[in-house]
Amino acid sequence: MKTSTYTQPDYYNIDDLLSEEHKLIRQSVQAFMNKEVKPIIEDYAQRSAFPEHLVKPFGALGIYGPTTPVEYGGGGLDYISYGIMMQEVERVDSGMRSMASVQGSLVMFPIFKYGSEEQKNAYLPKLASGELLGCFGLTEPDHGSNPAGMTTTLKDMGDHYLLNGAKMWITNSPKADIAVVWAKDEEGRIKGVIVERGMEGFTTPEIHNKWSLRASITGELVFDNVKIPKKNVLPKADGLSGPLKCLDSARYGIAWGALGAAMECYDIAKNYAMERIQFGKPIASFQLTQKKLAEMLTEITKAQLLVWRLGMLKNEGKASTGQVSMAKRNNVDMALKVAREARQILGGMGITGEYPIMRHMMNLESVVTYEGTHDIHLLITGHDITGINAFK
Ligand SMILES: Cc1cc2nc3c(=O)[nH]c(=O)nc-3n(C[C@H](O)[C@H](O)[C@H](O)COP(=O)(O)OP(=O)(O)OC[C@H]3O[C@@H](n4cnc5c(N)ncnc54)[C@H](O)[C@@H]3O)c2cc1C
């Protein structure tokens, strides 16, 4: 794979809005990703293999739960810092960002927000360091966009619960040490439970043959009369708002992450267009190529401003679900379009593993679907505008 001479696009001097700490965080994550991940990721993706050896180094770098308080092993940082980290990880690979997002936003976040003090102390520091890998089980084979319809059940047996059912499309599941799982109790209320690898009746078969997120491992979670100790139930989670709040946090990271993938594709396409000669001139001198590059940079710039403002709102505790949803939808769609245009600019070279563009494009096909599909996020915005729910 070609070594990149990446220059971050910053047409509107958005760097001026960042603190020195933000810039240092970006520099250190970028340096780590360039040294440890960039040189190997294409090979892992081509082989559809998960670079498990990176789980702990990501922890050492503070990638998981950067906004979690320091006392629980987190970074105690603000939301812009978190966003920048996700941007730099996904600039290299969406699969690696998926692994990190799940660990931080979908496993650490619910334990921090809904867990008991005992649960927080037992799991958060080990998740933050990467000593434990976690996964998040919401989606089921028959319930994706409509998680409220879930059929996984939690039955009170007096001194413990029994968990039965199955979850589908679960990032990290085949390698996860613990799973935060959402299931319905006998009253039909959605509860969160921590399931540990090794519990009898709990299996995590891998899903094979993905054309997307090939360096991220995905699987099922199967529960066959799994005995869950009462201490493993998240005491403060009650109802669908529990998992949905976790998704808010992860979707925020995705909005930044997808931007990173778009920036990388744009930068490569721009450099390639300047160097590639056809008809005796660089292809960058043709108006049609300039149109592509100009539109890419315009959309990247708008997406940068969107996530920066959203991060500030999150820092103030004012970001709504609708605002997060709009940013996730816009930025992933933007990144997918940028990746497709970049691939065209590279011509035949665009389809090879010499450049990461095709990998980004294929990865983003999952990102546009998971954590709420493109259309579902549109309906969330529509609901916000009209007050009318068009989901059903
Ligand atoms: C690689 C990958 C990793 C994932 N990781 C996780 C994970 O870690 N944990 C987890 O819980 N889940 C995970 N998911 C699941 C993901 O969140 C779901 O795939 C997603 O929510 C969509 O559900 P579905 O695939 O069942 O599609 P469906 O819900 O069946 O949707 C199919 C199509 O119908 C459309 N549709 C559905 N309902 C409506 C409606 N009311 N109006 C208009 N259109 C509608 C959708 O927009 C979509 O285009 C992952 C998925 C993938 C692909």
Under CATH at level 1, the class of the largest domain stands as: Mainly Alpha
Give the tally of structural domains.
3
| Structural class based on helices, strands and sheet pairing | alpha+beta
CATH topology of the largest domain: Butyryl-CoA Dehydrogenase, subunit A, domain 3
Largest sheet: 4 strands, antiparallel
- The helical percent reads 40-55%
Structure commentary:
The protein is of the alpha+beta class and 392 residues long. It has helices at residues 20-47, 55-61, 79-92, 94-114, 117-129, 241-275, 287-315, 321-345, 357-367, 374-386; strands at residues 134-137, 153-156, 160-171, 178-184, 190-196, 202-203, 218-229, 277-278, 281-282. It folds into three domains: 14-129, Acyl-CoA dehydrogenase/oxidase, N-terminal domain (Butyryl-Coa Dehydrogenase, subunit A, domain 1); 134-232, Beta Barrel (Butyryl-CoA Dehydrogenase, subunit A, domain 2); 241-386, Butyryl-CoA Dehydrogenase, subunit A, domain 3 (Up-down Bundle). Flavin-adenine dinucleotide is lined by residues 102, 135-139, 144-145, 169-171, 213, 218, 366, 369-371, 373, 375-376, 379, 391.
